[in-house]
């Protein structure tokens, strides 16, 4: 990557999404002005603007979607750091690693791993957890480019292998830099239950970062009895096998149980929506939008072939208009609003179940 752009963009990777609004007419200029307000001298604004334009928009997408995000100090050729109170590059480790616990780890190969964040005490196979590492470069680096993060227990699982910070390997670091790396660690779905150590390895060096317990997750593969068998596919990943629906009583709760089967692994977490509509005018009377099993079992944890029994309770109003009603169900991603289409029909984002009467 172009060095000036590296200083402008990567230093504030965490800031870009919050700083830039989708309605801004010139978001890149806004970023440059922000950096100037932080004491970064930009000797050739227009040249830097044009050079970084395409990279900037790519960086916004990366900072929203990537599993790894990195935060870099403002120190690169062509940009002079002014001595200001809030300049992290000239601060102490605790300032540079804000929010990350500091640990006493010996330096190796010209770098020091100053600290890292903690993982939860317990986790489930398939879950994603964020890890932050904070580094400091003191001198010329003589270590390999990549690091490896492993879970070591009854089995060993590699959960990350690559540069310590995205597109910014050890050899590119400048003396005195503090580097924060942010990693989305996805635990393999086949991780065996038990106690594990999270280890960081880099060449011949290794550091124990944390310990966690992987909990067993029960899976059901036998088809249970259901009141209403009914088959429909959502995307190419999830199939509805049938449903149960309780009686409609004004002022009470309506219980709806959906029976899902995972056809293909899903990496994202989807929200299930269950809407009750008046059949005549298709007005929504009541609804519930929540993760499967009362937000306790995200779709990203499901395993192929598994049958998930998913119960939802809708609060009914004191007066129900009409006599016949429709249950409408489906999936969407809360982060993007993207729906899973029904039975390969790109225009259909929801499934209407057979009408029910009160």
Which class best fits the helix and strand makeup? alpha+beta
Gross geometry: elongated
The residue ranges in which pLDDT falls below 50 over 5 or more consecutive positions are 10-18, 41-46, 57-90
Number of DSSP strands? 20
Indicate the mean pLDDT.
Answer: 79
Count of discrete structural domains: 3
| Sheet with the most strands: spatial strand order | 5-11-10-7-8
At a glance:
The protein has 358 residues and is α+β, with helices and mostly antiparallel strands.
Question: Your description of this structure?
Answer:
The chain is elongated and about 75 Å long. It has a five-stranded mixed beta sheet, with no helix packed on it. The N and C termini lie far apart (64 Å). It is built from six helices and 20 strands. The longest helix is centred in the first third of the chain and has 21 residues, at 45-65. The protein has helices at 3-10, 13-19, 27-37, 45-65, 93-96, 292-295, and strands spanning 40-41, 68-71, 80-81, 111-116, 122-123, 128-137, 147-152, 156-162, 178-186, 194-202, 205-214, 228-234, 238-245, 253-262, 271-278, 284-290, 307-315, 324-332, 351-352, 356-357. Strand 15 (271-278) and strand 16 form a beta hairpin. It has three domains: 1-85, no CATH class; 91-217, Immunoglobulin-like; 228-357, Immunoglobulin-like (Sandwich), CATH 2.60.40.770. By secondary structure, it is an alpha+beta fold.
